[in-house]
Design brief:
Layout lengths: L3 H10 L1 E4 L5 H19 L10 E4 L6 H5 L4 H11 L2 E11 L3 E4 L9 E7 L10 E3 L8 H4 L8 H4 L3 H4 L2 H5 L4 E3 L6 E5 L4 E3 L6 E10 L4 H14 L18 H4 L6 H14 L8 E6 L2 E6 L1
Helix pairs in contact: 9-11
This protein binds 2-oxoglutaric acid and fe (ii) ion.
Fe (ii) ion (FE2) binds next to loops.
């Protein structure tokens, strides 16, 4: 649960750093499961410290991490933020170098919360998440997209330049310092970046989506749901499942009722027709926009 101040900070500024959420014992288990996935990936592609690797953490070889999606520390906090939520996923990354300014949400209407867990201490010049407070809200969200280095249409064509430390530092941001055990929660629409991280930064995530409340949000969720349930080309990360979540997670072997609700809801939305409720999604410059159908 978030206290009233934490919830206020999240709603107003779009992020909150939750201190000391995990015990030392839990951190050991998370690191062990992280190492298990890293070893699985290394069987396909040796980690060189030159390219970020990403692992899905929802399968049977990471049972503790997978269970965190249903853990009340995160699920209840997510529900405090948005009312009802849908699961989006849980993954881990071995991050390399800087991360350019971007936001994670596919669209303004398709959003949620990411809980980011850094397994090493991180600060301003060692890869901590830096955010533009309040950038998850319109009209500022749109204003920030008008000009490089924040304009996404520019970033996606100029990754190398966007990743330059001076370019990232030219934008004022709040640094979310974190030590192992802390969790950085942020709205997926908030602009964020990082500078100076090591070439093997261990970062794990738990992500939930806002359960759609408006017809525009329903339209965004339908397009997300179709992707959620469809197999995709995983040849870049063959250690990850072809669907966004592993089949063994979808099988729900322990009959978890929360998980079943999520699976049923994703199925329901994936079977709905885009545009039928008056809104549809269109892809523009790598992002989704919800427009009148
Ligand atoms: O830690 C980083 O460098 C980037 C993290 C990020 O972009 C994310 O958690 O979405
Ligand atoms: Fe991100």
């Amino acid at each position: 649960m978030l206290n009233a101040d934490q919830l206020y900070q999240f709603n107003t500024f779009g992020f909150v750093v939750m201190k000391n959420v995990f015990s030392q014992e839990e951190l050991k288990v998370i690191q062990k499961e992280f190492d298990t996935k890293a070893a699985e990936a290394s069987n396909y592609e040796k980690f060189t410290g030159l390219k970020t690797q990403n692992f899905n953490m929802m399968g049977s070889t990471t049972p503790f991490y997978a269970s965190l999606l249903e853990d009340h520390r995160f699920l209840d906090a997510a529900k405090q933020m948005y009312g009802e939520v849908l699961v989006h996923g849980a993954d881990a990354n071995r991050y390399v170098g800087n991360t350019y300014w971007h936001y994670d949400a596919g669209s303004y209407e398709g959003y949620g919360v990411k809980f980011a867990i850094y397994l090493q201490p991180v600060d301003a010049n060692t890869g901590a998440l830096r955010v533009i407070p309040g950038s998850h809200k319109r009209p500022w969200f749109d204003d920030l997209d008008k000009k490089p280095p924040l304009r996404y249409a520019w970033v996606r064509l100029n990754n190398d330049q966007a990743e330059d430390t001076k370019v990232i530092e030219s934008i004022p941001g709040f640094v979310c310092k974190s030590t192992p055990g802390d969790v950085v929660a942020f709205d997926m629409r908030i602009y964020h970046a990082s500078v100076g991280g090591s070439s093997d930064r261990h970062h794990c995530t738990l992500v939930y989506r806002n359960y759609p409340k408006t017809p525009q949000e329903v339209a965004a969720t339908i397009s997300e749901a179709k992707e959620f349930m469809t197999e995709r080309d995983n040849s870049n990360t063959p250690w990850n499942p072809k669907k966004r979540v592993p089949d063994e997670w979808l099988d729900n072997p322990s009959n978890n009722s929360t998980r079943q609700f999520w699976i049923d809801e994703w199925m329901k939305f994936s079977n709905m027709t885009d545009g039928k409720n008056g809104y549809k999604t269109v892809a523009i410059d790598g992002k989704i926009e919800v427009v009148e159908a």
